[in-house]
Amino acid sequence: MTRIATRVALTALPLLLGLATLLPQASQAAAAGPADDGAALFTEPFAPCRLTDALQLRSLEAECATVSVPEHRSPGSRRIELAVARIAAISSRPAADPLVLLAGGPGQGAQLTFTAAFPVFARAGRERDILLIDQRGTGQSQPLNCELPAQGSSDVMTTDTAAFVALSSRCLGELSGHVDPGAYTTSHAVRDLEAVRALLGYPQLNLYAGSYGTRVAQHYARRHPDRVRSMVLDGVVAPQTVLGPRLALDAQAALDGIWQRCSADAACSASFGDVGSKTRGLQDSLRAVPQTVPVIAAATGKTEPLHFGTEQLAVVLRLASYDAGTAALLPLMVSEASAGNFGPLASLLQRVATGLPQSMALGMHNSVACSEDVPRFASAQIDRNAVAATYLGTSFLDALPSICASWPAGLVDPDFHEPLVSAVPTLLLSGSLDPATPPADAEQVRQSLSQARHLVIEGAGHGQLGLPCMDRVLADFFAMADPEALDTACLDQRLQPPFWVSLAGPAP
User: Fold this and answer.
1) What is the rounded radius of gyration, in angstroms, for the C-alpha atoms of the chain?
2) In this structure, are residues 328 and 499 in contact, taking their beta carbons and an 8 Å threshold?
3) pLDDT per residue as tens digits for the range 214-252
4) Which of helix, strand or coil describes residue 486?
5) What's the gap between Cα 381 and its chain centre?
6) Domain, as residue range, for 77
7) Is the peptide bond preceding residue 106 cis, with omega within 30 degrees of 0?
8) Most confident region among 61-70, 173-182, 378-387 by mean pLDDT
9) Lowest-pLDDT range, 309-313, 380-384, 441-445?
10) Cross-strand partners of 389
11) Using an 8 Å Cβ cutoff, are 384 and 425 in contact?
């Protein structure tokens, strides 16, 4: 999903108020009180800090604290530390319920992920605090990070099953003895979120969740319905969905949609013809003769050779299709490669893959997949012939069970995969060409929510934070918590990113 297999395994404001003025006295006492095996405790109190994104391109002033929670909910469990960042509301009389941002992956840390996207939430942050809590196993919260190939290496940009399994085996060996990988599931994370809420003394939370984070948000709302004031679920995963078996099919459907959009666009169609046929021809030629393409390495600025075969083609097609802007480059890039010029497509691969290995925790990803999804593969309807016919093939379908054969499975609550039945005001966001979480999942979730509205953005990919005026839509929703009364007309006026018809850009 965000990235569930690809984006991991392909490795694919001034603060005006101090903490003491906002935290209840009970929370301050908890920080200094005696240890309790089941409680969340401050190990480092809130202090000014600066957050940065994965690429070190954007920074954000905040207040950061470290909170200790048990690794397991059992007497005598060792404790792990969660990284909590808070951006205080600008208002001198902020709302009592903060906005909590839940990252995707599984494996992305909230602080790295949302520092880059924070301008979208700045308007909502005028009236309420924003909390960035790195989920256990990610970011700076006992991260289940493993040594990965160097950024830009062909070993990272692969879909090979054996490479996935070898990488995960090394990862498990690195983690053994330091943590229990089975303790890093969504069910544990939901308990952490409630423990942090209680420690900070907030009566309710507003949740924005992206991709895998929508799974976390829904289970939190199931466990603590009175603690959720509102939710935005962006790139929705239905609780019933088994992640993995349909991954390649969803990716192929999104890519086909991009090619169909090109065919319906006069300039794109005239320039490139049948891009789908070109893609299949390119796969065949790369299968016979892989290319070595000189590219400029982002880390060093030096020209280095990049192996480019069918696996690298699959990676760039998948990752570029996540965003409508990069998807608009694909017909041109595929056509250039079909004519023998692989430089633009290889450069696009580096662009969309840069920073992914460093921003994802492979161990945490595996703990979630091996506990929550792979055990349910047997119950999923899997058409191997249909999967094999996609540009991704059966690599992911085969890799996950192979990885999980040795990876420890962890706690999954008995009702985890049941539909969420809730009256929490909820806004569901989908892209019509999402290669990871197609709109059907959000529509399935909407059926059991009594106060929900589903917006499908035509031509968009995975995650809608980059849309013009989304900052206003989110701020208005969190202010009123009424999805039906929300004015979303500005989203209807969105213009599709135009297809590039030459290396100089789109048609005039």
Assistant:
1) 22
2) yes
3) 999 999 999 999 999 999 999 999 999 999 999 999 999
4) coil
5) 25
6) 13-144+186-242+415-491
7) yes
8) 61-70
9) 380-384
10) none
11) no
Q: Is residue 162 in some structural domain?
A: no
Please, what's the b/e burial string for 412-445 (b: 16 or more CB within 10 A of its CB; e: otherwise)?
bbeebbebbebebbbbbbbbbbbbbbbbebbebb
If DSSP codes are grouped into helix, strand and coil, which group holds residue 103?
coil
Residue 214 domain-assigned (yes or no): yes
Q: Could you report the per-residue pLDDT of 358-368, keeping only the tens digit for each? A: 678 999 999 99
What pLDDT shows up at residue 119? 94
- Is position 508 within any domain? no
Name the domain count of the chain. 1
Number of H helices and E strands in the chain, helices first, is: 20, 13
Q: How far apart are CA 188 and CA 198, in angstroms?
A: 16
Instruction: Give the integer Cα–Cα distance in Å for 316 and 490.
Output: 31
pLDDT tens across 454-497, in order?
999 999 999 999 999 999 999 999 999 999 999 999 998 888 89
Q: Say which CATH number the domain at 20 has.
A: 3.40.50.1820
Place of tokens 């009364």: 485
Task: Assess if residue 371 is contained within a domain.
Answer: no
Q: Which amino acid is at 114?
A: F
